[in-house]
């Protein structure tokens, strides 16, 4: 029986055309794959020929003859070499293949997500940078962001790290409120949690926004290379100051830009005020300043918090006293006031006699007062004088007497600082998280960057007098007795501490450098001795050789230069 043929599927004319196109496309792809090396070499030869023609056209006519002769000599040399023509042909094909390869174009512009972010930022700025009267505004709803934005950079997460904004000339860029609105909007749209720097170019109507890297927190307390009377408050951005000092950062040594505070008679900001929240690093700052001041002078510490953060300084050489109680604080600050007066009188009499000031009147004295507002509350409750009143003489006349006062307190107690402390502490620091309003209330100027809410201890801002506001990171100076702190940083602090004083020397009254603990002198309420007491000896313990000044009616009563401790 004959086999029946299979039924045929009817094929229309359109199906035949589509099938023919598919076959032709497949054949073309296969031919392209087979002929790809030849196509690449042909493209390269064409590019080489075009480059040669351009070079020939650019060659002056008087040099074409020598160039043609040199080319002919090269071709003849290749032809005469063994296997020269073959090697020359292979080299030519290799150069042509390299020249004719298909290069993947490098993407230079932003991707789709970045374009969407830039467009959203452009639309958000329209209400601030446009007016209805502008015939061709830079910022308009649905407009092109490329006309207003340039120099844009993104990080790995697609967030802006740098952007240059062109704004219209009628924008009031000289008004702080208008600037603050733009900076706040850019900060919110570009991503919170980072510190932004805004640079306004009012002449060119340009605003540059850049993200600042965090300041390093790995620099520990150490000996810094500074001139006499200079103290390193911390470190800032490289372009903020014109000076660097070598520092030990971990196991490596590098140059870091410091924030230097100049003290002494030639300083325009002889006293300092540091403000922060609990745990912001103000105590670490005072410890760092004490360690830097001890090699060149004496230090008196008055601690109002009563937590024993300065116990490591007790009994050390150069540390006059570490007072934590109200009575001791009053006695120590009263001694500091009389010591300032004594230095002024001694220096004045020496100048009148044509001699330099005595050595004990020129030895730097640093008074560190932590949380004086606590003592003010205690003194008011106990009916005793406010310790801040005793700071008036060192603050007013300390610069001429080589006396420096450093006051640290918290934001919630800032209103309890008296007017004298606020007026004469022209070097200001704000540490820890703070709002722009809080920074401005302390420094007298708003921060030049956007403060962040999560900062490490010791991070903040500094301003010397009427200078610029600088970012600041205080060197890590923890309490060496704090077991929670880094062992490396604790050992760094211990290495900087001076030797402990001998017991006999610490109990000798009349020492020009003061004592740590001694018996209370005569007088009610722990007040220093009267005006008939002899002048103290010099810093090395030798007897005073200068003239004993007669009582002066206009001069305050002088006291012993030794600090008086707390009662009991």
Provide an overview of this structure:
Residues 551-568 have a biased composition (Low complexity). It comes from Streptomyces marianii. Residues 438-463, 495-568 are annotated as: Disordered. The chain has 568 residues and is of the alpha/beta class. The chain has 2 domains: 112-212, no CATH class; 230-526, P-loop containing nucleotide triphosphate hydrolases (Rossmann fold). Helix content is 35%, strand content 16%. It has 14 helices and 16 strands. The protein has helices spanning 13-58, 61-80, 84-99, 112-125, 176-190, 282-293, 326-352, 359-362, 372-382, 392-397, 419-424, 436-443, 487-496, 503-506, and strands spanning 149-154, 160-166, 195-201, 206-212, 230-235, 245-249, 252-256, 258-262, 272-276, 298-303, 319-323, 365-370, 403-410, 427-431, 459-464, 470-473. Strands 11-10-12-13-9-14-15-16 form an 8-stranded mixed beta sheet, sandwiched between helices. The chain has a 4-stranded antiparallel beta sheet with strand order 1-2-4-3, with helices on one face. Strands 5-8 form a two-stranded antiparallel ribbon. A hairpin with a 5-residue loop joins strand 1 (149-154) and strand 2. The longest helix is centred in the first third of the chain and has 46 residues, at 13-58. The chain starts with 12 loop residues before the first helix and ends in a 62-residue tail after the last helix.
Quick structural overview:
Helix content is 35%, strand content 16%. It is α/β, with parallel strands linked by helices and 568 residues long. Helix 1 packs across helix 3 and helix 4 runs antiparallel to helix 5.
């Amino acid at each position: 029986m004959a086999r029946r043929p299979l039924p045929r599927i009817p094929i229309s004319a359109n199906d035949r055309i589509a099938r023919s196109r598919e076959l032709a496309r497949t054949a073309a792809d296969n031919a392209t794959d087979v002929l790809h090396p030849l196509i690449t070499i042909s493209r390269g030869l064409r590019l080489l020929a075009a480059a040669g023609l351009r070079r020939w056209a650019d060659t002056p006519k008087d040099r074409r003859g020598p160039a043609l002769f040199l080319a002919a000599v090269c071709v003849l040399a290749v032809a005469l070499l063994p296997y020269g023509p073959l090697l020359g042909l292979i080299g030519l094909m290799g150069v042509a293949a390299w020249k004719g390869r298909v290069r993947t174009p490098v993407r230079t512009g932003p991707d789709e997500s970045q374009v969407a972010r830039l467009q959203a930022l452009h639309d958000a700025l329209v209400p601030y940078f446009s007016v209805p009267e502008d015939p061709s505004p830079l910022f308009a709803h649905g407009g092109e962001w490329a006309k207003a934005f340039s120099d844009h950079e993104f990080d790995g997460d697609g967030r802006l790290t740098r952007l240059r904004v062109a704004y219209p000339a009628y924008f009031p860029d000289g008004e702080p409120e208008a600037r603050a609105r733009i900076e706040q909007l850019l900060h919110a749209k570009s991503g919170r949690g980072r510190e932004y720097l805004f640079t306004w170019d009012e002449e060119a109507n340009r605003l540059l926004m850049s993200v600042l890297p965090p300041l390093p927190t790995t620099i520990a307390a150490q000996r810094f290379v500074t001139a006499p009377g200079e103290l390193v408050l911390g470190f800032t951005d490289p372009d903020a100051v014109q000076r660097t000092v070598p520092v030990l950062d971990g196991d490596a040594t590098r140059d870091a830009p410091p924030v230097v505070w100049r003290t002494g008679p030639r300083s325009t900001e002889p006293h300092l005020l540091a403000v922060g929240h609990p745990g912001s690093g103000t105590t670490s700052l005072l410890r760092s300043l004490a360690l830097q001041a001890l090699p060149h002078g004496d230090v008196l510490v008055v601690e109002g918090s009563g937590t024993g953060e300065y116990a490591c300084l007790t009994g050390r050489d150069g540390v006059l006293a570490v007072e934590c109680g109200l009575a001791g604080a009053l006695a120590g600050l009263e001694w500091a006031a009389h010591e300032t007066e004594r230095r002024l009188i001694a220096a004045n009499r020496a100048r009148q006699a044509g001699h330099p000031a005595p050595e004990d009147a020129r030895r730097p004295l640093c008074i560190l007062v932590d949380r004086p507002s606590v003592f003010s509350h205690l003194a008011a409750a106990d009916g005793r004088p406010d310790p801040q009143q005793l700071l008036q003489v060192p603050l007013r006349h300390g610069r001429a007497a080589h006396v420096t006062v450093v006051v640290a307190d918290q934001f919630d107690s800032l209103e309890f600082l008296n007017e004298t402390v606020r007026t004469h502490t022209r070097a200001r620091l704000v540490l820890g998280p703070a709002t722009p309003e809080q920074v401005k209330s302390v420094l007298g100027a708003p921060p030049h960057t956007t403060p962040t809410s999560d900062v490490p201890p010791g991070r903040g801002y500094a301003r010397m007098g009427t200078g610029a506001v600088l970012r600041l990171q205080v060197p890590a100076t923890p309490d060496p007795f704090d077991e929670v702190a880094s062992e490396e940083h604790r050992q760094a602090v211990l290495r900087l501490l001076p030797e402990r004083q001998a017991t006999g020397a610490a109990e000798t009254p009349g020492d020009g450098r003061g004592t740590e603990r001694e018996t209370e002198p005569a007088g009610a309420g722990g007040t220093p001795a009267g005006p008939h007491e002899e002048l103290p000896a010099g810093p090395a313990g030798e007897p005073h050789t200068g003239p004993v000044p007669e009582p002066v009616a206009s001069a305050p009563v002088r006291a012993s230069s030794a600090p008086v401790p707390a009662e009991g």
